[in-house]
Amino acid sequence: MPHRVRAVVARAKDAPVTVEEIIVPDPGPGEALVRVQACGVCHTDLHYREGGIGDEYPYLLGHEAAGIVEEVGEGVTEVAPGDFVILNWRAVCGECRACRRGRPWYCFATHNATQKMTLTDGTVLSPALGIGAFADKTLVAAGQCTKVDPEAPATVAGLLGCGVMAGVGAAINTGGVTRGDSVAVFGCGGVGDAAIAGAALAGATTIIGVDLDDRKLEWAKDFGATHVINSSSGDVVEKIRELTGGFGVDVAIEAVGLPGVYEQAFYARDLAGTVVLVGVPRPEMELTLPFLEVFGRGGALKSSWYGDCLPTRDFPMLIALYRQGRFPLGKFVTEEIGIDDVEAAFTKMHDGEVLRSVVVL
């Protein structure tokens, strides 16, 4: 029978979120019911609340989560009741042209649960990134559940579901950072610091964190930045060149989503270097670059979708590295909060006071 649970709902653009009772159906074919244990407060959730992603209110917020599978629907073989899982928002189809070419991280037909969660009056909810995990339970496609080592704390594991994976993957999967490389990361919030940690994990020897906030630059050092630059204090590109023998970095990662910052990343790379955009721009933004510079500098300009990750490959690996003490996943958690504290967490995030608040359910 359907489940009545508490959840965080955004009813209208810019309106404070509310905690309400919602209805979660039993899982149908290909679906899984997950009891959420913890869910990170990601900037994407704030984008939903502010209307920056769409206007399909009311939204059921939360997506950076881990928990226990309670029930599965007909035909589900990937997971079973009792499994500890991280939720992901790109359940690959296995049939599209990207999947058939052996590139499932680019899957063009990712899917979510078919059934809808609703308010108690029957109003259909739009789950954030197809998950909706600021709730005691949520309904997802079974492919959105990735089984990992249950010894990992849910408060830490869930962060791989979005921001941390996006950053790590931008460095390792999209940017191809490897041993001996030089890397600059523009924007040292959660995604940027994850990119720094990923670059360190891959063996980069020069890792430069760039931000306007000295507090965030201190965080960057904790994740492996060998140098930091406050971008308000002079020519960022010139300072990066000074730190790299006058050449620029092998990989420049833009984790802000602003045209001006992307332009800095473009010019801060070495010849034949790579620029990776993982920061999310707004729809109205435009970028202008000299076409001859795009040609003449060579290299690659890439966008990183979810860190070009394959959850079944990358989540267990990163959890294993965390358990071995080789990946500082726990450092991303600034505070643990309750479900009633999400609105306050948005304020702290906006003010740059936290790296990640994590809702414990």
From TrEMBL:
GO terms for cellular component: cytosol. One of its GO terms (biological process) is formaldehyde catabolic process. Keywords: Metal-binding, NAD, Oxidoreductase, Zinc. Residues 13-361 form the Enoyl reductase (ER) domain. GO terms for molecular function: S-(hydroxymethyl)glutathione dehydrogenase [NAD(P)+] activity; zinc ion binding. Belongs to the zinc-containing alcohol dehydrogenase family. This is Oxidoreductase.
